[in-house]
C-alpha cells in the first residue's frame, strides 16, 4: 500500500491549532542525520536567509501584496501601460515581492485580455504545501506551518520553533497554496506564463522541492486533479479557439528527461544520450530531439503518455513512486496573422507597436518536473541517482544565487555548464523567458529543515528578474512559414493544372487525330491524379495549422462541467486516462501513483486500434479520391467513346466507391465485433483465472479449502477442460457468425484465442503433472505408513515376548530367593545366582522401557504421517489404514 494512501483533505489541516501544537509537543527534537548527504540548499547562515529586520505583517492584516496573481493580472491589464522599471530596480534585494516586480512594464497591450507581452519581470513564486500524509499522521505529526489569510505569507509555528530552537521567520511569496486543488494552483502559478507563450514570449514553469513534497502531483496531477501540464495543454487550445483576431498557430511538442546527467528523449527512448548545442539564433537547445506536431489536446496527452512510459520512476525510502529524473515537457508555439498581405495590423486590445502582418512569432513553453532533493537512501542504485539529482539541484541553487547577486550585470561566471539541467535552462534563466516556480513543501515537523531550505531557495528565485519579450522570426526556421509556403505553391500548381486540363479538353473537343486524342486522355488522367495528390497534401498541411475556425469546443476539455459525462472534457481525456472517472472533482485525490494513469494496458490497446483504423480509413479515402479524379476527367470529355467509358467507369468506379464505403462500414462493424469479442475474451480470461486460482489453491495448499484432495483436483481439471471447450465453442460460434468481410479481423482474433487456448492447455498439462507428482507422493507416504505399521506390529510382538521372558526370570529369581530353599541360600548375603538374576531382571526392565519409548516415537511418526496424508486430503481414502496402524493389534 502506498505510503501516502489516504492523504488528508485540506479540511483536515490543523494550521497552528491547539491540537496541532499538542501533537507538536510530542515530537522528538529533530536529530541531525549524520549519514545524510549535505543539504543542497542554502544553510541558515546564508546571507540570503530571511532577514530578521524584514517587515513582518501581522496575521490577518491587509497586505499590499495580498492580491492573487490573477487579480494582479487583471489590475495590470486594466492599466494597460505601466512604467518601465529602471535597471537598478531589476535586482530586487529584499525577499518581498514588490508590486512593481509583478507588473510587466510594456508599451504594448494584451491580446484577448491576456497579460502584456514583455518587460522586466520578477520570477513568479508559488509555495505549495501538501496535506499531511497518512504515515505522517500515524506518527503523530502535525502541520507546523502557519499560512496567513492573505495566502502569501508562511511562518513556522512559534511554539514549534521555540521547542526545537528554530527561527520562526516570515516568508512572503506571490502565492502560498495549501491543499490539493490543482485548478487554483494553475491559475496562480502557470496561466499567465502559458498565455504569454501564446503571444510569443518564452515561458518556463518548474516545480522544485524535497522528495515526496508533491512536485509530480502539481505538474502532472492525478485523475481527479489534473496538474499544471494537462491544464496548460487545455488552456492553449482554448486560447486558439477563443482568440478574436485572425491568427493561426502551429504547435509541436517534445519530452525529455535528465537521468544521471544523461539526456534521454522520452518520445524516442533509443536516443538516450542527447547533446546540448548552442547557436546564435536558437540559443541553447537539445538535439536530435523528436518533436511531434499536435492538433488536439487528446493528441498532446497521448504524446505525454508515451513519454511517461519511458520515464524513470522508482520506490525510495521517502516516496514509493519517486521521479528519479528531471523531465522537461516542451511546446513550441508558432503563430502569425492569417492574412499575409504584408500590411501592418494594429495590436488588439490597446496601443503598442503594430505587428507586421505575416510575421511569425515563435516561443517555447517549458513545463518541468524536477526530481526531489533527498537524503541518502538505503538502496545503492537510488543513492547514485540521488547523488546526481542533488548535484544538479545544487548547481541550480548556485546559478540562482549568482543571478540574485546581480553578478550577471558585471559579467561574472555563472556555472550554467556545471549541470545539464542548468545548461538546458540557461536561455530561460538568463532572462529570455517568463519564469514561474512552484516550490512544494511538506507540512510535517520532521521535514522542517528541508522545508526551510526550499523556502530560502524560493526567496532567492523571487529576486531574479527577467526581461522576456516576444520573439519574432521571419526566416525558414518557422515551420508555419514553411508549410504556408508549400500550401501556396501547391495551390498555384493546382490552378495551373486546372488551366492545362481545360486546354486539353478544348483541344479534344475541336477534333484531331485519334492517336493524339488517346495521348491527351492519358495525360489528363495523370494530371488529375497529380491534382488529387496536391489537394491531399494541402488538406494535410492545412489540418496542422490551427486557428479559431479549426478548433471547436469538441477538441477542448470542458472544465466547466467536470462531472458531466457528456462533456467534451471527459470524451477527449478519458480515453487517455488522465481526467476524472469520478463525478466528484472535489474528492480527495488518490495517493496511489499507479492511479495516475488508469488502466494503461486497455488504453494503449485502444489507441493502437484507433490508429490502425484511422490508417485504413485514410487509405480507403485516398483510393476513393483517386477514383473520383478519374471520373472527373472522363466526365469532362465529350467524345462518345469516352462517354461510354464514363458509363463504364461510373459503373465500376461507382461500384468501387460503393464497395469502398461498404468496406469502411464493414471495417467499423469488424471493429465493433472485435471490441465485443475482446470483452468476451476478457470475461473468459476472468473465468479461467478464477479456475486457475482454485486449482492453485488445491495444488499449493494441499487441502485446498474443501478437503477434497486429489479427487477434487482431478474434478477441477475436468471442469476447466470442459469450460475451455465451452468457451471455444462459443468463440467458434461468434467467429462463424461474423460477416465474411470481417474474415481478416476474425482470423486474427481466432489465432489470438487459439493461442490463449494453447496457454490454457499448457496450464492443464502443468496441473496434471502436478497431480502425478502428488499421486506419487501419496503412494510413497502410504507405503511408508504400511511399513511403519508393520514395524509397530513386530515391536509389539517382541514386547510381548520380552514381557513373558521377564516374568519367567522374575519367577525363577523369587524361587531362588525363597527361605525354604536352604540349600541355595546362605543367610542375609545374596548368592551369585541371585545377583545374576537381579542384573538380568534390571536389563530386561531397561530393554522393555526402551521398547515402549520406541513404540511411542513410532506412534508419533505414524501420527505425523497421518497428518501429512490428511494435508493431502487423503484422510478419508486412507483412514482405514491409519486407524489400523494406531489401534492395538
Ligand atoms: N497537494 C497534494 N494533495 C494531495 N496529495 C498530494 C499532494 N501533493 C502530493 N501528494 C501525494 O504525495 C505523494 C508524493 O507526491 P509526489 O510524487 O508528487 O512527490 P514528488 O515531490 O514528485 O516526489 P519525488 O521528488 O520523489 O518524485 C503522492 O502520493 C501524491 O499523490
From TrEMBL:
Which keywords, in A-to-Z order, does the entry hold? Answer: ATP-binding, Coiled coil, Microtubule, Motor protein, Nucleotide-binding
Give residue ranges for domain Kinesin motor.
122-464
List where Polar residues composition bias occurs: 77-91, 103-118, 817-829
- Provide the GO MF annotations for this entry: ATP binding; microtubule binding; microtubule motor activity
Kindly list the GO CC terms recorded for this protein. Answer: microtubule
Gene Ontology biological process terms, A to Z: microtubule-based movement
Q: Bias category Low complexity: which stretches?
A: 42-51
List of residues binding ATP = 209-216
Quote the PROSITE patterns the UniProt record gives: KINESIN_MOTOR_1, KINESIN_MOTOR_2
Q: Which residues form the signal peptide?
A: none
Ranges in a coiled coil = 473-533, 603-784
Region annotation Disordered: residue ranges? 24-118, 813-832
Family assignment from sequence similarity? Belongs to the TRAFAC class myosin-kinesin ATPase superfamily. Kinesin family.
Q: What is this protein called?
A: Kinesin-like protein
Amino acid at each position: 500500500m502506498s505510503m501516502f494512501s489516504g492523504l488528508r483533505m485540506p479540511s483536515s489541516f490543523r494550521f497552528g491549532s491547539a491540537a496541532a501544537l499538542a501533537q507538536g509537543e510530542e515530537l522528538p527534537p529533530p536529530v541531525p542525520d549524520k549519514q545524510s548527504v549535505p543539504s543542497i540548499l542554502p544553510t541558515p547562515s546564508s546571507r540570503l536567509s530571511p532577514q530578521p529586520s524584514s517587515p513582518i505583517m501581522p496575521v490577518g492584516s491587509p497586505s499590499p501584496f495580498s492580491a492573487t496573481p490573477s487579480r494582479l493580472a487583471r489590475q495590470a491589464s486594466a492599466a494597460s501601460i505601466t512604467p518601465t522599471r529602471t535597471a537598478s530596480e531589476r535586482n530586487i534585494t529584499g525577499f518581498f515581492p514588490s508590486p512593481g516586480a509583478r507588473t510587466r512594464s510594456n508599451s504594448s497591450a494584451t491580446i484577448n485580455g491576456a497579460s502584456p507581452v514583455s518587460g522586466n519581470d520578477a520570477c513568479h513564486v508559488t509555495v505549495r504545501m501538501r496535506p499531511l500524509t497518512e504515515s505522517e499522521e500515524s506518527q503523530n505529526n502535525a502541520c507546523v506551518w502557519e499560512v496567513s489569510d492573505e495566502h502569501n505569507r508562511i511562518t513556522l509555528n512559534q511554539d514549534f520553533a521555540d521547542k526545537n530552537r528554530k527561527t520562526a521567520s516570515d516568508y512572503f511569496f506571490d502565492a502560498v497554496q495549501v491543499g490539493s486543488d490543482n485548478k487554483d494552483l494553475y491559475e496562480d502559478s502557470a496561466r499567465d506564463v502559458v498565455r504569454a507563450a501564446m503571444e510569443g514570449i518564452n515561458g518556463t514553469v518548474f516545480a522544485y522541492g524535497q522528495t515526496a513534497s508533491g512536485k509530480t502531483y502539481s505538474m502532472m496531477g492525478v485523475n481527479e486533479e489534473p496538474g499544471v501540464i494537462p491544464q496548460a495543454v487545455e488552456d492553449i487550445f482554448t486560447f486558439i479557439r477563443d482568440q478574436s483576431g485572425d491568427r493561426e498557430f502551429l504547435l509541436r511538442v517534445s519530452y525529455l528527461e535528465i537521468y544521471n546527467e544523461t539526456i534521454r528523449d522520452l518520445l524516442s527512448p533509443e536516443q538516450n544520450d542527447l547533446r546540448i548545442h548552442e547557436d546564435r539564433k536558437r540559443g541553447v537547445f537539445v538535439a536530435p530531439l523528436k518533436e511531434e506536431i499536435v492538433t488536439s489536446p487528446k493528441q498532446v496527452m497521448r504524446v505525454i503518455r508515451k513519454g511517461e512510459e519511458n520515464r524513470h520512476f522508482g520506490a525510495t525510502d521517502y516516496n514509493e513512486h519517486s521521479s528519479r529524473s528531471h523531465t522537461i515537457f516542451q511546446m513550441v508555439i508558432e503563430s502569425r496573422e492569417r492574412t499575409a498581405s504584408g500590411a501592418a495590423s494594429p495590436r488588439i486590445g490597446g496601443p503598442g507597436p503594430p505587428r507586421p502582418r505575416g510575421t511569425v512569432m515563435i516561443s517555447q513553453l517549458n513545463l518541468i518536473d524536477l526530481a526531489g532533493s533527498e537524503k541518502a537512501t538505503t538502496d545503492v542504485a537510488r543513492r547514485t541517482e540521488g547523488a546526481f539529482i542533488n548535484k544538479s539541484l545544487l548547481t541550480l541553487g548556485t546559478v540562482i544565487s549568482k543571478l540574485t547577486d546581480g553578478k550577471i550585470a558585471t559579467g561574472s561566471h555563472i556555472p550554467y555548464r556545471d549541470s545539464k539541467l542548468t545548461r538546458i535552462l540557461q536561455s530561460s534563466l538568463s532572462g529570455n523567458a517568463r519564469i514561474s516556480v512552484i516550490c512544494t513543501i511538506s507540512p510535517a515537523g520532521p521535514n522542517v529543515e528541508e522545508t526551510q531550505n526550499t523556502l530560502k531557495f524560493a526567496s532567492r528565485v523571487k529576486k531574479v528578474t527577467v526581461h522576456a519579450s516576444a520573439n519574432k522570426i521571419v526566416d525558414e526556421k518557422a515551420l508555419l512559414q514553411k508549410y504556408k509556403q508549400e500550401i501556396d505553391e501547391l495551390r498555384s500548381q493546382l490552378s495551373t493544372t486546372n488551366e492545362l486540363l481545360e486546354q486539353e479538353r478544348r483541344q479534344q473537343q475541336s477534333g484531331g487525330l485519334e492517336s493524339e486524342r488517346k495521348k491527351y486522355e492519358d495525360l489528363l488522367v495523370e494530371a488529375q491524379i497529380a491534382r488529387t495528390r496536391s489537394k491531399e497534401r494541402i488538406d494535410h498541411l492545412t489540418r496542422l495549422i490551427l486557428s479559431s475556425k479549426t478548433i471547436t469546443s469538441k477538441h477542448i476539455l470542458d472544465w466547466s462541467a467536470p462531472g458531466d459525462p457528456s462533456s467534451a472534457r471527459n470524451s477527449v481525456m478519458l480515453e487517455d486516462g488522465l481526467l476524472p472517472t469520478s463525478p466528484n472533482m472535489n474528492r480527495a485525490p488518490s495517493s496511489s501513483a499507479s492511479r495516475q494513469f488508469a488502466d494503461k494496458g486497455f488504453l494503449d490497446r485502444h489507441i493502437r486500434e484507433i490508429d490502425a483504423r484511422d490508417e485504413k480509413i485514410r487509405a480507403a479515402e485516398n483510393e476513393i479520391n483517386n477514383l473520383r479524379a478519374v471520373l472527373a476527367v472522363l466526365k469532362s470529355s465529350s467524345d462518345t467513346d469516352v462517354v461510354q467509358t464514363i458509363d463504364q467507369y461510373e459503373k465500376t468506379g461507382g461500384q468501387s466507391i460503393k464497395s469502398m464505403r461498404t468496406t469502411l462500414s464493414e471495417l467499423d462493424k469488424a471493429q465493433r465485433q472485435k471490441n465485443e469479442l475482446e470483452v468476451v475474451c476478457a470475461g473468459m480470461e476472468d473465468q479461467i483465472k478464477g479456475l486457475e486460482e482454485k486449482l492453485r489453491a488445491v495444488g499449493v495448499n494441499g487441502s485446498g479449502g474443501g478437503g477434497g484432495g486429489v479427487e477434487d483436483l482431478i474434478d477441477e481439471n475436468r471442469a476447466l477442460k470442459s469450460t475451455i471447450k465451452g468457451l471455444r465453442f462459443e468463440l467458434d460460434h461468434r467467429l462463424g457468425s461474423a460477416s465474411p468481410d470481417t474474415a481478416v479481423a476474425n482470423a486474427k482474433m481466432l489465432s489470438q484465442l487459439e493461442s490463449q487456448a494453447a496457454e490454457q492447455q499448457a496450464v492443464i498439462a502443468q496441473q496434471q503433472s502436478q497431480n502425478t507428482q502428488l499421486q506419487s507422493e501419496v503412494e510413497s507416504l502410504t507405503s511408508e505408513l504400511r511399513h511403519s505399521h508393520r514395524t509397530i506390529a513386530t515391536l509389539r510382538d517382541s514386547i510381548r515376548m520380552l514381557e513373558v521372558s521377564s516374568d519367567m526370570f522374575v519367577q525363577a529369581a523369587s524361587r531362588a530367593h525363597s527361605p525354604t530353599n536352604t540349600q541355595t541360600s546362605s543367610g542375609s548375603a545374596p548368592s551369585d545366582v541371585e545377583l545374576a538374576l537381579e542384573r538380568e531382571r534390571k536389563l530386561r526392565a531397561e530393554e522393555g522401557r526402551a521398547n515402549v519409548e520406541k513404540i511411542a516415537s513410532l506412534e508419533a511418526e505414524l501420527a505425523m504421517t497421518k497428518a501429512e496424508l490428511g494435508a493431502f486430503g487423503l484422510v478419508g481414502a486412507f483412514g482405514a489404514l491409519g486407524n489400523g496402524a494406531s489401534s492395538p493389534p
